[in-house]
Amino acid sequence: MQGFLDSLIAQGYFAGIPRDLVYLGGMLAFGLLVVLVFVLNVAGVTTFVERRVWARIQNRVGPNRVGPQGILQWLADGVKLVMKEDIVPTQADQILFRIAPYLVIVGFITTFVVIPFGSRLVIADMNVGLVYITAATSIVVVGILMAGWASNNKWSLLGGIRSAAQIVSYEIPAGLSVMPIVLLTGTLSFQGVISQQGWAPPDWFIFNNPFNFVAFFIFFTAALAEGNRTPFDLPEAESELVAGYVTEYSGVRYLIFFMAEWGNLYVIGALATTLFLGGWNAPPVTDNPVLRAVLEFVTFFVKSYFFALVAMWIRATLPRVRVDQLMSICWKYLVPMSFVNLLGVALWMVIFPNGARVVQYLMTLGGAALVVLFFRRVVQHWRRQRIRERGELYLSPLV
Amino acid sequence: MSLTGFEVEVQRNGKTGLSTEEMTLNMGPQHPSTHGVLRFVVKADGEVMREAIPDIGYLHRSIEKISEKVGYHGFMPYTDRVDYVAAMFCNQGWGMVCEQLAGIEVPKRGEYCRVIAAEMNRLASHLLSVGTMVLDIGAITPFFHAFREREKLNDLLEELCGARLTYNYMRIGGVAWDLPPGFAERTLAFLDAFEPCLEEYHDLVTSNKIYVERVANVAVIPPDVAVNYNLVGPNLRGSGVDYDVRRDEPYSVYPELEFDVPVARGELGTLGDCFDRYIVRMREMSESCRILRQCFKQIPDGPVIAKVPRKFKPPAGEAYIRVESARGDMGWYCVSDGSEFPYRTHVRTGSFSAMSIIDWVSPGLMLADLVAVIASLDIVAPEVDR
Fold this sequence. Notes:
The complex is a heterodimer.
Chain A: H1 2-10, H2 19-57, H3 73-83, H4 94-109, H5 129-150, H6 154-185, H7 190-195, H8 210-226, H9 238-241, H10 251-276, H11 289-317, H12 323-351, H13 357-385, H14 387-390
Helix pairs in contact in A: 2-3, 2-10, 2-11, 3-10, 4-5, 4-10, 5-6, 6-8, 6-12, 8-10, 8-12, 10-11
Chain B: H1 5-13, E1 23-27, E2 39-45, E3 48-55, H2 63-74, H3 76-79, H4 87-102, H5 108-137, H6 141-161, E4 170-171, E5 174-175, H7 183-206, H8 209-215, H9 223-228, H10 234-238, H11 245-248, H12 274-298, E6 317-325, E7 328-336, E8 342-348, H13 350-361, H14 367-376, H15 381-385
Antiparallel strand pairs in B: 1-2, 2-3, 4-5, 6-7, 7-8
Helix pairs in contact in B: 4-5, 5-6, 5-12, 5-14, 6-7, 7-12
């Protein structure tokens, strides 16, 4: 972003305006563009995609009435929720109840400040990006706890407290599992992390060494828990807590909570992509800067949306863990494992100061073998259960 | 000298450390996982329950009293509403108790039709039970898989008696209609497709680590407590007590059929936990498939209903019969004074006794476990109140 503005200034645009002011204006303009054009729409479309993906997994059709293939369903839902009455219970803590959703959405949208969509498409490439994003996501828990407390409803309170305990606990393994990347790269900036990876899988940090591979899964699990996703969706477990902290919310405020939640899916994917899967690094096929930017953006989007799809798949598949199990998963397994990982990566860097290419290629092959094995199991399952004969397999995504 | 809140707390309780109040939670009557209109008054210390007192009566419809006003034949449709998830068994129970009062013998084909309908209903009921149990644990997809099969069963039952839920299929002395043409073939084709689905269900749910962790070792009901609290059916067999009315006090044509009674052995946890009750239901579904196949092979020709006068006046006396419903031993008691109307009717249902044990198992469980316990006991709200 800064380079782009520098080149514009060099060409004589913005003459007479202080350079810092131009930077600020550029950041604000790009930030608004990202929020309005990208974030809100991605969050909305994700709700539609999730419902369709669930429907296919569950042998249903899913929403297909509004627009072609129901693609505008999210807009219809949004309009419906905006038109609904925004009820504030009389016994609720009025101020806290009203501002809680905004805190949640602020915690979600501010993460986009440092998410790099391409080598130049980033609002601000902070040199403390990782620390910043950990801090930004922590605001969400304040909002949720506030919503739970202010609703003056016992189910909401339980949901809010569960959420606080969960997010605070899982921030530790999430933070510790990104530390190996910091050790390897020596930087906290996202652009710095990505530029040290390549476009090919062996150059990705997930296949850099065995410890990173484990760290990736710890990170993804902890991120799911921080995003209140199944199997860790206890704060709003509908079969236990009615709707958790959103029980008393309606209308726009409800919409805001859910936009943050679904948008968070993309953030989880974007972080995993940035840190472990090579980020926007695309194969060098073109020198045209615009085409290059598009290619990078598409690469990044596809990689990060893949994780959103995985999270939907997990949500449609797995039951929910209990509160004590949630805590024991975190403190008994994930935290010790991530500490061991951190030490392991440190040792690895001492033993192989320049990295081990052979290990990288072997691990890439291993990863590919895992994918192949998985699909073999799926095919075996089809054959054994005679699903094809039962006529219950609809592979077409269109209905 | 002013005291901080913490010091006040210490003075009041005479001990250090924070003590917190118990929270009283109203779970229901409108709560997504109470399966109908149930209410529990839960005293919780954070997430841990101190007690959960069931509050019944929200669905009381005086069904027993209604029988005294509508007569023997007229009461049959009302029995559907005793347990709407397994209405065939209530039909059968009422039919059997009236036949015993009047000494009517049901034709062989009628008995087979009854068993076929009842076992199909057992499959439908157990599918609903395990489906909603997994849904309450938090997994959404297995519920749809279970309901997919249940819909097919409902289609078949609709073909048989014209209704999908409140069947009103049986009559005093037999059943209302014979099996429709081609019904046997269609049902057998369904069973062929259903049995692999059961295996798939085991793959998806029974072997799921999170699911097992959530239900194994939770809400353990030892065999003696289960007997003392009068648990029946899959709940009793889930505690390891080998008792099934169909085998131990046979009625209808069950003595001519060959089937096993699945009893839990506490495979993945302690004997009598939620998982055991779940697995007993899963295995009972396989047994029901077996019974259905045998029924279609052995069903004789002949009438489906005995000659019963339209003005049904059983001689004065009383009768008590037991039916193994999907929720267990269902007792039907009827006193006749020789008139057209029953003098007194009483139904004893499995859900009522299952409801009473929640008070016993709940202390010390987590709040999330209560949902699993209700689902694993397979409580159907209208059956509790009648």
